[in-house]
Every structure is written in structure tokens, then in C-alpha cells.
Amino acid sequence: MITRELRLPPSVSAENSESNYLTQPQQKSTSGKTEKEQVSENYRKATFTKRHLFTLAGTFLLLLGGAFSVYLLQPQFQEMNLGRMNTLGGMILIFVSSFLLLFRLGFLAYISRLFFRYKPVSSVSDEELPTCTVIVPAYNEGKQVYETLLSLTNSHFPEEKLQLIAIDDGSKDDTWDWMKKAKEHLGNRVAIYQQPNNQGKRHALYRGFNLAKGEVFVTVDSDSIVEKDTLRNLVSPFVTNKDCGAVAGNVRVLNNEKAIIPRMLNVSFVFSFEFIRSAQSMLGSVLCTPGALAAYRSKAVMDCLPEWINQTFMGQPTDIGEDRAMTNMILKQGYHVLFQRNAYVLTNIPEKFSSLHKMFTRWERSNVRENLMMSKFAFKPFRNGSKSGTRLLLLNQWMHMLTAYPLFLMMIVLLVLHPVLFISSTLLSILIFSSLPAFFYAKKYNISEAFWAYSYSIFYTFGLFWITPYAMATANRRGWLTRELPQKK
């Protein structure tokens, strides 16, 4: 199975590193524990401060108040609905709303069926593992890049089959100093490079891909920590499935104890990855391999690398969405893209609203661009076997995009004409539909943290509802938006 070795020189062991992250075993193959036992260790019962309790209490007062208001205002709701049915515009609105609701419920039932069929690929033996190159691009990351590199060298992965490359993309802080410190500590186990100036994550990865020697390329964000079995679990599907071109890792929030936004997003991430991507994996069509942790068959990367690095949108070079773009180009080649639930990575996310909405805007702009790209090949015979599931996933993406402006407009109109009815019905909807991710998290981890699903839904509905319409209107804009150092006044 292995055609060549990297033959990296021996180096200093990282077993006694200065890293202070949590490194829990993941699969029974090396740790002697099942995935469920390991998961419970990863996410211990959370501690709650008075601020947290106040936030959750306020959340449920709002939701229960909304539900009670809907009950009290039934005559007004009936009057409003009867009024709609007496006009052509109202009938169209009711029809479209009913169709969208049925589509969403049908799609949810479909992916739920796929989720229950999903099982991650078990880790293969050391002899079967492919040679692997891990690339860590970094920009203004500071000490965290040091922790990231140490976590990678602590992996349960044969040293002679692992090449580790770290690239400083022209950072303005002390990132390069921390990379040099990692080099001093790890010796030849890591190779470090520095871009002459900041060129963007895509160009840093491009340099890494061209330096890579492994049969599988793994990309890891410099603000992320991988667990000990992550790498071997992540690359095992390439051994067991010859059609596998890329694998997405399972992303969790590293700083979920520090602020309320990370705690809320932690629950959202679990649902997004373990539920949604598990279902997508059953179709061989995970739509995005996350930058925090992804693996690619080297041949698939090299075959699309010139197109990827020279990608443009509306005549301008593309400097965002490099992960979604790479995923699209690998799908286009006919490969399958899978998800490994047992390949965990913990990553930092924004703790403040200003940084969070910039991150979401960047993601949504990327989705607009890459949905357009995917539409160019998804409805053609781009690979053998069934393609209907992949097309349905894309249609769901477009449904989200195309309804953004009508829903935004309807929200504004209802807020003006029927503010109490709109807010109360919205809160009741949040209470109902947020119960799915909350129940999912509670069953998988713990009940107390699951309640953040409700807080997040309120936060997103009333604070971030504008992201998708805004991103669609500004999809041609460039810029990473985050990672810049604070400006001195």
C-alpha cells in the first residue's frame, strides 16, 4: 500500500512538551477506549458562572414567554391568516411558506436517515498507514502555533511516515519566534518557512503542497489542537477506499470555556459536523473540508493545484474559501469526500461579536462563490455511481441562498406591521426547532451544555440574520477580515 517513505531524520521526542492542552485518546485501536468513552472525557461537565446562568435563564424566559404569547394571541393569528387567504399575495405567501417548510422537513428526514447509517472508518495498522505531510499555515497566531505543532508531533503516527511543515505567512507579531522555538524543541521533526510578506492562506498552503512528499496532505489551522489519534483516523479512509479524494475532520471549539459565544458555537459545531457532515459523508459528498483539519489525496491536489492557486471570481484573484474551493475541485475530479467523526481537532473561534460576524461573512461569501462553481459540474456526469444525493445537497444550499432576500424582506414587513405576532411566533419556532441540536448534544455529551443551542438560535436569528443577504450582495469583495492585530489609537 505504501509506495515510498519520507525518510525524515530522527529528532527530539515531544513527549515531555510544554503544551498545556488536553490530549485524550480517541479510538480503541490505540487507547483501549471506545469512541463514546473518549468523547465523554473530551467534554467534561461544564462549569457555569452567574453570567452563564443569567443568560440561559433569560433565554428560556424569552422562549417560554413567546410560546405563551402565541397561545394568548390565537385570535389575532387567525385573523391575520384569514386576511392573507382573501388576497392573491397572501395565498402565494402561504403556498411558498408551506412549500419551504415541507422541503426543509423532508430534507431533514433524508439526512437523518443517512446519519443513522453512518459509521467512521476505523484506524488502520501502522504498516498500512500512508505517508503523510501535515501543513500548518500561520498568520498573527503567536504562541498558539507552538502548541499546534507540539500536538501534531504527539500524534500516534509513525514518525518515519510523517512530514510536518509550518509556514509563517508574513506575520506582524511574534509567530515566527514561536515557530523557531518549536523548531528548537522538535528538531528535524518540523520544517519551518517564512513568506517574505503576507500573501494569504492560499499561497502559504500552495508553498506547503509543493514542498510536501507524502501520499496524503493534511492541512491544520495554526490555532488548532489535534488529539493523539486524530491523524491516523483522518487518513485511514484513503487506505480502505480507493475513491476517497479528501476527508474532513471533526471540529470542536477549543476556547469554549472562555466566553459565551464560543460556548454557544460549540453546540452548533457538534450538530454541524457530527450530524450534517455524517449524512453528507454517506453520499461521498461532504461539501467543505474545514481548514481546521482536512486531508487530501496528494494526486488529487496536484491535479487541480494550478487551477486552485489561480482561481478568480468576477475577474479578481480569490483569497478566501480555499478549503471549499479545494473540496469542489476534488469532487469535480470524480473522487468521494468523506467525514471522519473520530478525527477530532479543537480550534479557537472568535469571542467577540465584531470578529464573529466577519468570520461568518467570509464563510458565506465563499459559499456563494463555490455554489456557483459546483453548479457547473454537479448536474453533469462528474463521477460514477449515484449523483442525486450530491445534487440534492447543492439544491439545499441554493434554497438557503435564494430565500435569503424574500425572508429578509418578509421579516422587516412583519416587524413593522405585526411586531408582537412576529416576535412571539419566531420565539416559539426557535423553541421547537432548536430542540433537535440541543437533544443531539445532550445525548452525545451532557444536558447542561446543550441548552446553549437555544441561546445561539436567538443570537443568530436576531443578531446575525443579515449575514447571508449581505454576503450575497458583496460576494466579490476580497479580504480575510480577521487575524489582523489591534490598531493602536
UniProtKB/TrEMBL annotation:
CDD domains attached to this UniProt entry: CESA_like
**Residue ranges of region Disordered?**
1-38
**What UniProt keywords apply to this chain's record, in alphabetical order?**
Cell membrane, Glycosyltransferase, Membrane, Transferase, Transmembrane, Transmembrane helix
Q: Where is the Glycosyltransferase 2-like domain?
A: 133-302
Q: Biased composition, Polar residues: where in the chain?
A: 13-32
GO cellular component terms?
plasma membrane
Task: Report which residue ranges the record marks as coiled coil.
Answer: none
Cellular localization per UniProt: Cell membrane
Keyword check for Transmembrane: yes
Q: Which residues cross the membrane?
A: 53-72, 92-111, 407-433, 453-473
The record's annotation in InterPro entries points to: Glyco_trans_2-like, Nucleotide-diphossugar_trans
One molecular function GO term is: hyaluronan synthase activity
Per the record, the GO terms for biological process are: extracellular matrix assembly; hyaluronan biosynthetic process
Q: Cross-referenced PANTHER family, in alphabetical order?
A: HYALURONAN SYNTHASE, MANNURONAN SYNTHASE
The family classification in the record reads: Belongs to the NodC/HAS family.
Report the protein name in the record. Answer: N-acetylglucosaminyltransferase
